[in-house]
Amino acid sequence: MSTRSRATVAATLALFALLAFPASSEPYDLKAYVWVRLTVANNSTLAQPLPPLVVDLPANGTYQLSKLVNATLRIAGSPASCKLELASGECGSAYLVAQCSARLPPRDTAELEVTSEVHVKRFRAPPINESASGALSDIPRELAEFTRSEGPWAYEDAKARYTVEAVKRVVKGEERVLSIVAKLVDWIWSKVDYEVGQGPRYPWETLPPSKLEAGRGRGDCDDQANLLILALRSLGVPAYLETALVADFNYRDERVVWAPEAHYYAAFVGINYAHAWAVVYVPPWGWLPVDLTFHAGTGDPLDAIRTSAPSEYWVWYTIVTVRTESVCHRDYIREFREWGAQASLTPLFYYWEYAVIREGDSIARVKSFLKPLPLPWVKQTRLEVKYPSRAPALSEVVVGGRLEPGVANATVLVRARKPSGGELL
Fold this sequence. Notes:
Structural class: alpha+beta
Number of domains: 2
CATH topology of the largest domain: C8orf32 fold
CATH architecture of the largest domain: Roll
Low-confidence stretches: 1-25
CATH class of the largest domain: Alpha Beta
Order of helices and strands: HEEEEEEEEEHHEHHEHEEEEEHEHEH
Shape: globular
Number of strands: 18
Largest sheet: 7 strands, mixed
Oligomer: single chain
Helix content: 10-25%
Radius of gyration: 25 Å
Distance between the termini: 41 Å
Mean pLDDT: 87
């Protein structure tokens, strides 16, 4: 890496040191590390321009503080001279962006690897009850920006008109904000089944008109959260989306999303996939998480708040929620679909790998649980070595040859078995 590039990285690290970890009146519950690697693979026989590499950084806010610890960039296996800079998103979101003038060689990869330190404070629900809730008229006017018809929550759009009318029938003129939230959570639970899709859905896709009266819609965490946010905003209740990684530190479970037709891959190590919930302003308590898909299964809609993923309810399950981004205004669904459509037309494939590591554990050890990336030009090969049945065992196995082309994160595994079926190695 050049002197200029090292200086850019140093400046970025210094900026994070200044911004991260302000004084807090309350102690944080735990410390962990978030490791992310973005790999871009060129499935072409020609060198390709390398697009900007962007990695989300853990959020800084009331319940979490983070700082960048390390960032490395390699192209074709070697350190690259690229510009690294911090970019700010909406509602405090931050990203690390690598801008490279170098071209990506054919059948090769570029890797941006980022490690952040996070201090997490679990959400402790206040003693909420509907009788103590403030009314719609108690919502501060300065929060009006979080009630706009925009992005995934465009309730003024013709596509959402039937949803808005249904929402009015559900709340029946209720003025207490917590009661409105409870009615809508209960309604969504009664109308939508959990289903993971190939990407985020708009509310009118999660619960289309054909399923409103008969049948049930389908959607996962952010799909259901977006339906709730649209409904609340249409009534004048401020709400936005928050995304996170739900860490359970179970490193042996393979959690992979692989869509080769979309040139998209995501692997989660020690993480029970990515997650999202709605954040809703409820007077007099302020902003509260409302989690429709990760909560205690009591049937009480208020437990979508009390036992939400970021809450202290999950401390005994050793589950830790690391916030990654707040989506307040932008249409991230349109952005995702446009990116996917464009990426699938190029020879570039994108691979995201995520891990959350406990304090005191080894990042190198956790990375050892990662599976080899399914690079598009790499084909699986089976190698069989047979030996005479009279031989008591194999004392040595030598596998010769080369892996062509170079394979990122590759593993060669050799197993030897006895004629009876037991393993020797």
